[in-house]
Amino acid sequence: MGSVKLRMSENLRIKWPDQCAACNNPSTDSATTSITNTTKFRYYVVAMSFTHQTYSFSYPVCKKHKRLCNLLDQSAKSSLLNNTLVFFFCVLILWLILNFLFSSTLKIIGLEIIDQNSIDYWSFMSSLVVATLLIIYSFFLKPVRISNLSEDSMEISIKNDKYLNYFKALNNEHTIK
Ligand SMILES: [Zn+2]
Questions:
Q1: Do residues 177 and 7 lie in contact, with contact meaning Cβ atoms separated by under 8 Å?
Q2: Is the model's pLDDT at 80 over the cut of 80?
Q3: What single-letter DSSP state applies at residue 18?
Q4: Separation of 105 CA from ligand 1 center, angstroms?
Q5: What is the C-alpha to C-alpha distance for residues 143 and 160, in angstroms, rounded to an integer?
Q6: Ligand 1 mean position to 27 CA, how many Å?
Q7: 38 pLDDT tier (thresholds 50, 70, 90)
Q8: CA of 63 to the centre of ligand 1 (A)
Q9: How far is the CA of 152 from the centre of ligand 1 (A)?
Q10: Strand order in the sheet with 153-158
Q11: How many angstroms separate the alpha carbon of residue 55 from the centre of ligand 1?
Q12: How far apart, in whole angstroms, are the C-alpha atoms of residue 62 and residue 46?
């Protein structure tokens, strides 16, 4: 795993190796990766608004990895509100599952005396942790992602080392060392 820093310019055309970014097999499809910058804030007297700036590009993948890559890119494309709703929905589902598991395990080992409130509390806390870990895990699962974007440069992280070397060779003229 490594990253390449490219100089942003109007004539920047990223060249991609003709291989799947995940497994190096011949590419048949393309997947997108995007980044949303929420660094620009505007303050008003009563409210604060964010200005989003989304930047995205496509990269080659095989059929097998296309679905996975597009699924992983969903969260980058949707709004903060949507992501928050999805996050809490996942927490809720996990909470129900863990709550059931905790209560039935305690029943089996004969510890029914532990009150329902603490089961609720601990299963809720566990589901928060599990959902957060899943988000972090899916973030690092992406074969190609934009790790940094500024007005004059863009940093692309590539998991696959072989692919990274091909990429570096192809885009040498735009690379910032
Ligand atoms: Zn593949």
A1: no
A2: no
A3: S
A4: 41
A5: 7
A6: 7
A7: low
A8: 7
A9: 31
A10: 2-7, 153-158, 144-149
A11: 24
A12: 49
C-alpha angle with apex 50: 6 to 145, nearest 5 degrees?
30
Do 33 and 66 touch, CB atoms closer than 8 A?
A: no
The protein residues having their C-beta less than 5 angstroms from ligand 1 (an ion) are 20, 22-23, 62, 65
* 6 CA to centre of ligand 1 in angstroms: 24
Tokens of 21: 């970014």
Model pLDDT for residues 1-33, shown as the tens digit of each residue: 899 999 988 778 899 999 999 999 999 999 988
* Cβ atoms within 10 Å, residue 4: 19
Amino acid at 30: S
**177 vs 166: CA distance, rounded Å:** 16
Q: Of 34-48, 108-122, 134-148, where does the model show the most confidence?
A: 134-148
User: What's the whole-number average pLDDT of the chain?
Assistant: 84
H helix runs in 17-79, sequence order: 63-77
